[in-house]
Fold each of these.
Amino acid sequence: MQQQVFGGEQHSGRATRPLWTAMKRGFLCRCPNCGEGKLFRAFTKTFDHCEACGEEFHHHRADDLPAYLVIVIVGHVILGGFMGVEATSTLSMWQHLAIWAPLTIIMSLALLQPIKGAVIGLQWAYYMHGFGGEVDHIEGHPET
Ligand SMILES: [Zn+2]
């Protein structure tokens, strides 16, 4: 007897897009579809479409999720690092500030673009927000 599958990607009739590959390609700031074309034309501005394979990028709705994720990651690393060093050393508050404040800024700037790329890769892999070719209806957005 044939197994019946309801819902999910098996039911959609669309090819499954590899989630982790797409997120890894996005993290490396490359096109989630081909991994060749560049994803960003500026720090956090994406190209409209891939120069290599033509895949459209403008559908993404990463919004402020990348910033939230950067805050979570950097916050845990910096706070854990500070507390560990503070407990095992005799550094003054000024020395701690000189270490952790610049590190926070550097890590945040370094992670924002790759994490935004990974979020776009996830949205692409799940056919979200028009990545499947349908119109994405969001009130107030020019595409709708
Ligand atoms: Zn591409």
Amino acid sequence: MPMDIHFARLNQLAFGYWHAQTLFTLTQAGVFDRLQDEALDAAEIARACGLDADAGTALFDAGVALGLLRKGDTGRYENSELSRALLLSEQAGSLANWVRVMGRWVAPWTTVGEALRAGHAVDPQSPKIVGDAAYLEEFILGMHEYAARSSDAVAAAIDLGAARRLVDVGGGGGSYSIALCRRYPQLESVVLDLEPVLAITRRIVESAGLAQRVHTQRCDYRASAFGDGVDAVLLSNVLHQESREVGLDMLRRAFAALRPAGRVIVHGHFLDENRTSPVFATLHNLSARTLWEGGHSYTAAEMSALLEEAGFPDPRVTAVAASATKVIAGTRPAS
Ligand SMILES: C[S@@+](CC[C@H](N)C(=O)[O-])C[C@H]1O[C@@H](n2cnc3c(N)ncnc32)[C@H](O)[C@@H]1O
């Protein structure tokens, strides 16, 4: 490979966070929302968003260069198509809360080296999220915004047969309960999550028009039982946040909650068997080890082995192209 290609790639890697931080700063300052209905000049945006006028101009111009804003001939700024589609807080299909959460994770991500030396997260986010109402709201809404882009495709990869009772462990905003109830008309789901999360879950479920079929129940998934005689247990994007021991214990409690022939479904990002791809999964692994106490990623084979250890023989792996995630399903033996 010619040297200039290596140099270009190195630049891209080393300057990557400059791009991200510009997006986060514009979002945190509320620039996109302020420009929702009108184009403004730099002084007007800076005043409305609490920025110094001269320094603010540098930020807005960088936003233009990155395709997040547009600058007209009069020098007024407006949102780009991308920002109008994805970054306005109140817009359907927005990812504004998710971007705010990514911005919040810049600080803990700087502890990645320390976490890897210690072998565990040194700035774990769970207690911070639960202890800060604004962070919790952004986290749950943000995860839902992101999930909503592919939750129908994920639901299509989940075979629930004639299941009527689903338990969604650590279900957050209820994204997958909603998608599965839409796909399976006979299904009802209970989202199990920490108490402060559930008020947000109920708002999301209500606005999806599924309050009669998606219920909520307070639960500490590290300790509580997950129910009794249920048809299916979903563990979506939760096991990478926990140690292998906690994960195995959760799968055993899923087994105990299921009726014979009931199904456990694990959904999330998995490393390929070589552990060096896909790129996102390798970085997700670093993120899990940095943000969550005991967190780490699995390969699909490792997760399948964990399911087998918990009593589910021959788990089945299905890839979901739309989300680059996998669904791993196990069945509790009939007898
Ligand atoms: C990454 S989100 C996943 C949400 C959802 N399952 C999904 O796939 O989009 C992790 C969820 O686990 C929940 N959670 C974390 N610790 C928990 C605990 N000890 N007990 C119950 N829920 C917990 C969080 O509140 C959050 O809703």
